[in-house]
Amino acid sequence: xxxxxxxxxxxxxxxxxxxxxxxxxxxxxxxxxxxxxxxxxxxxxxxxxxxxxxxxxxxxxx
Length: 62
Fold this sequence. Notes:
Elements: H1 2-15, H2 25-35, H3 50-60
């Protein structure tokens, strides 16, 4: 029973991350070139900025 609970928890938590964000520009360039895709650069704001917090919550984590 514990194994089933653990598997369910892992599956649910993995759904929360819909994108695989890169923190290295060079890695992103290589992957984008392979997949013929554009690169979106995000210059994140501070943790006290209301619009930045809204962007983080509503866009980047969705």
